[in-house]
Write a structure and sequence with these properties.
This protein has about 350 residues and is α/β, with parallel strands linked by helices. The protein has a single domain, classed as Aldolase class I (TIM Barrel, Alpha-Beta Barrel), CATH 3.20.20.70. Helices cover about 40% and strands about 15% of the residues. Strands 1, 2, 3, 4, 5, 6, 7, 8, 9 and 10 form a ten-stranded parallel β-sheet that branches. Strand 1, helix 3 and strand 2 form a beta-alpha-beta unit. Helix 1 packs across helix 8. The chain is globular. The two termini are about 35 Å apart. The relative contact order is 0.16. Bound molecules: S-adenosylmethionine and iron/sulfur cluster (SF4). The site of S-adenosylmethionine has 19 residues, from loops.
Length: about 350
């Protein structure tokens, strides 16, 4: 029997799941996870910081905010060829999703955005899923990214609506939700999740999961970040997040959103292989990996490709190929060229062949 998708979880139900005895919770989440077509597959993603630092926003955890002295060097928009080189090496290492991040408050209709569109086109043409995280988007920008072939857009809600203003004052939760809605008006998939360790209560975590699980459809990717404490930011001295709390968040997300990819994101470098194994058992099925051992900046460390390959092999897990089972922007193009104009088809067994032919 397959668990039915629900979008009406109450806060009380979510809290009751979250607070279950830990091993009962992991067991329940694992059972839900085993309903995935291939529960032993893990999506491996590579983040590229295409524009680093000097961000006008005041996100109190971030190494790239211009408000804090974090020692992160500012870098203008990267050259397209440099991005493609990194993406090529990532693909050769088995990465199936390349995520390009820019430290912007919002995308602007200018030559920089045009350059990003060009990067999206070319990296998509390499046959990997492309995700962008560029700050706030309006409808037309989301549409242009869709037309360039963008597969996913990341825009994290980070925490609950009520705790948000204690973390960020330069934009609102509503702003964040608007961008997510603008992306949802396209075929680009949604990647949105949160960060643990921002001084939030368990009820704030429940509220975040409530917001995510009420989205219809559920976000295709749900990153669970554990705060990487960045010296110079207001969160530099925040208390550590106990591992079991991260495990509870992952397991609860898996139960509430059975078909979404749940990504064990920032903070993974501090976890042992055994702790990560628990996360995979509880339904995490996506990670970031990096040849430079850092996520967007060196302030947020990451394991590298070789370490991750060895870990996945040890645990009997495999790397998920790109464009598997979800919407595929190139699939629309390719399918039309192939004479298929049935949109439902794109949810999508024939997408991998289209991608691999590229
Ligand atoms: N400017 C864009 C935005 O905010 O959407 C994209 C870049 S931002 C660095 C990408 C995400 O990384 C943030 O939304 C946040 O959830 C996560 N992140 C950034 N710094 C982090 C840290 N120190 N620890 C954990 N997660 C972090
Ligand atoms: Fe800027 Fe994004 Fe960092 Fe916030 S999280 S300061 S918006 S780069």
């Amino acid at each position: 029997m397959t668990t039915a998708l629900r979008h009406d979880w109450t806060r009380e139900e979510i809290r009751a799941i979250h607070d279950m005895p830990l091993l009962d919770l992991v067991f329940r989440a694992a059972a839900v996870h085993r309903e995935q077509p291939d529960p032993s597959e893990v999506q491996v993603c590579k983040l590229i910081s295409i524009k680093t630092g000097a961000c006008p926003e005041d996100c109190s955890y971030c190494s790239q905010s211009s408000r804090y002295q974090t020692g992160i060097e500012r870098q203008e928009l990267m050259d397209k060829c440099a991005v493609i080189d990194i993406a090529k090496r990532a693909k050769e290492s088995g990465v199936s999703r390349v995520c390009m991040g820019a430290a912007w408050r919002s995308a602007k209709d200018n030559d920089q955005f045009d350059k990003v569109l060009e990067m999206v086109r070319e990296v998509t043409d390499m046959g990997v899923e492309v995700c962008c995280t560029l700050g706030m988007l309006n409808e037309s920008q989301a549409k242009r990214l869709e037309e360039a072939g963008l597969y996913a857009y990341n825009h994290n809600l980070d925490t609950s609506a009520s705790h948000y203003k204690s973390v960020i004052t330069t934009r609102t939760y509503e702003d964040r939700l608007n961008t997510l809605e603008n992306v949802r008006k396209t075929s680009v998939t949604l990647c949105t999740g949160g960060i643990l360790g921002l001084g939030e209560t368990i009820n704030d975590r429940v509220d975040l999961l409530h917001t995510l699980s009420h989205m219809e459809p559920h976000p295709e990717s749900v990153p669970v970040n554990i705060l990487s404490k960045v010296p110079g930011t207001p969160m530099a001295e925040a208390p550590d997040v106990p591992f079991t709390e991260a495990l509870r968040m992952i397991a609860t997300a898996r139960i509430l959103m059975p078909r979404s990819m749940v990504r064990l994101s920032a903070g993974r470098a501090k976890l042992s292989v055994s702790e990560q194994a628990f996360c995979f058992l509880a339904g995490a099925n996506s990670i970031f990996s990096s040849e430079t051992k850092s996520m967007l900046t060196s302030a947020v460390p990451s394991p590298d490709y070789d370490e991750d390959k060895a870990m996945l092999e040890l645990l009997g897990l495999s790397m998920r190929p790109p464009f598997k089972g979800d919407k595929h922007p190139l699939g629309c193009k390719g399918a039309k060229e192939g004479g298929c104009d049935d949109h439902e088809h794109h949810e999508h067994s024939h997408a991998p062949e289209i991608a691999c032919a590229k």
